[in-house]
Write a structure and sequence with these properties.
Length: 160
């Protein structure tokens, strides 16, 4: 029997569907089956303050969903200096991760846990969904580009 994604869980386990809906407004209207896949198949991990979550010139391992804490995205220079680009707080998106995933490119900056951090990652689910949309003729995928080819089908899916 599969675990119930809506069941209460301990703080060390994956978030529930309700928690994802509450934290990420963009997911609030997602199909229940999509959110259940994120909860059941997404990667869930914690990082202590100061931990490197991702580093420049490394492959993007997934789209991070910050559940608790703050992720600092910064550019590091050979002379040791750092330039903070932005922060990602619970419910916000990491623009760099999205760009790297869509473009099949390595990270161009680093992500460091500014405070103790709880993350979920959904690379595999996003990739599978995009491939399924492409197979149905709804989108056209290319390096660093997604072109919508059937807006009505995607709108109907979003309303389902």
């Amino acid at each position: 029997m599969s675990p119930d994604p809506n069941a209460p869980r301990s703080a060390s386990s994956a978030p529930t569907v309700a928690a994802l809906r509450a934290l990420f407004p963009a997911l609030a209207d997602a199909a229940p089956s999509t959110l259940a896949r994120i909860v059941l198949h997404g990667i869930h991990r914690k990082a202590t303050a100061g931990s490197v979550v991702f580093d420049a010139r490394t492959p993007c391992a997934g789209f991070p969903l910050v559940l608790a804490g703050t992720l600092k995205v910064l550019q590091r220079y050979p002379n040791g200096r750092e330039l903070q680009l932005y922060r990602v707080k619970p419910g916000e998106s990491c623009l760099l991760s999205g760009s790297c995933l869509l473009g099949h490119a390595d990270y161009t900056a680093s992500g460091v846990a500014e405070s103790d951090l709880e993350l979920g990652s959904v690379r595999e689910i996003v990739s599978r969904l995009l491939r399924a949309f492409e197979d149905k003729g709804w989108v056209d995928l290319a390096r660093e580009r997604i072109r919508i080819t059937d807006r009505n089908a995607l709108a109907a899916l979003a309303k389902a």
